[in-house]
Amino acid sequence: MKINLLTLIFVFTAALVSGQRPQRCDVPLSENVFRQKQRSVTLQPTEDLRLKVAIAIASNNCLSVDQVKKIASQFLDDYSRLDFAKAAWFNTVDKENFYFVYDEFAYFSTVFMLHDYILSVETRPTDYLPPYEPPVTLNFPALDYPAYENYRGPSNCNYPIREDDFLQLAAQVSANNSESNRLLLLTQIAQNNCLSTAQAMKLSSMLQSEPNRLTFFRTAILSVFDLGNLPFGAQMFAHIPNRSAYNEMISRPVPIPQPVEEVECFVPAAEFSQALESIKKESFNSTKLTLAKQILRSKKCFTVSQVKEIARLFSFDDSRLEIAKYAWDYTIDRDNYYQVADVFTFSSNKENLMKFLEGK
């Protein structure tokens, strides 16, 4: 979408100046970890599930504006995009660039809804939100926990999560009395966050069973920042066989993360039908064009047959030609793109498309 960026930059900067807060995050997810999380959004079968997974990722991880944009582009609906962007704002590292996320929206109305939301958050008085109080019920064992602040050795992630975030996650685990559920929650925490060895030790202490602690560490070791401090974790095991198993586990080289397998590129029939209905509902041709381009840009993997169906939603050849040219970059079977010319009424537009394809 085309937006007057100078205007938006001005109002956005005014919002930041009027009421700044310390940033919650300093370092975004590494690209390898981010691609895995982005893929977990892509694999969800419905828009609602994609939104739930995306919000969970935004709430529990630090993201860059570029990463926020990449996830936002996976939604068909502007309101889903809006809900995700609201959740992502708080943990965005480079908030000063957040206006670039506006480019992913199809409508000005939702852009300004997002802007108004950010403005309302940034201009609240500091006493608007109740001060956070760490949970007082968490009693971790008195052990020799290693410090990570000056650590410079091998690492599996960028930097451990903040201590207040860690305590909130631990409190959620503490509220669950089931050992099996705790193990599941702890495993999810380890998969979605960078941990220090001390944090991993404290989380493992929330499990009564030493074999379960071993199971937890097998996952957590892949997300530990200060790998050189892992020998301290042996304190979590009173029984010699379990301690030996732990020491053997941390002595083995950590497996190199395998490249994420590319997801097959296509737009499912159900999602495509939903997209067609969304375009059909628009009354004005200009709005239809804007929405159609947004859908093409967000899903990226259309067939020539699908492009032809989208083009036929427009009454005039000039709009069909504009969509046909725009859709080229988001079509997977380009060898057959000449077939898109079938949607035109006038031969001049067919020739125009053929010249465009020759240039490609």
Radius of gyration: 25 Å
Question: What's the average pLDDT?
Answer: 83
**Separation, N- and C-terminal Cα atoms:** 23 Å
Note the run of SSEs as H and E: HHHHHHHHHHHHHHHH
Tell me the number of strands: 0
List keywords for this structure.
360 residues, mainly alpha, 3 domains, 16 helices
Topology:
Layout lengths: L4 H14 L12 H12 L4 H14 L4 H8 L5 H12 L18 H15 L40 H12 L4 H14 L4 H8 L5 H11 L19 H12 L17 H12 L4 H15 L4 H8 L5 H11 L19 H13 L1
Structural summary, described in words:
The protein is mainly α. The protein folds into 3 domains: 5-122, no CATH class; 163-251; 269-359, no CATH class. The chain has 16 helices and no strands. It has helices spanning 5-18, 31-42, 47-60, 65-72, 78-89, 108-122, 163-174, 179-192, 197-204, 210-220, 240-251, 269-280, 285-299, 304-311, 317-327, 347-359. Helix 3 packs parallel to helix 5 (78-89). The longest helix has 15 residues, at 108-122. The protein is elongated. The model is unreliable at 1-23 and 127-136 (pLDDT under 50).
Give a quick summary of the entry:
The chain is mainly α and 360 residues long. It contains 16 helices and no strands. Helix 2 packs antiparallel against helix 3 (47-60), helix 3 runs parallel beside helix 5 (78-89) and helix 10 runs parallel beside helix 11 (240-251).
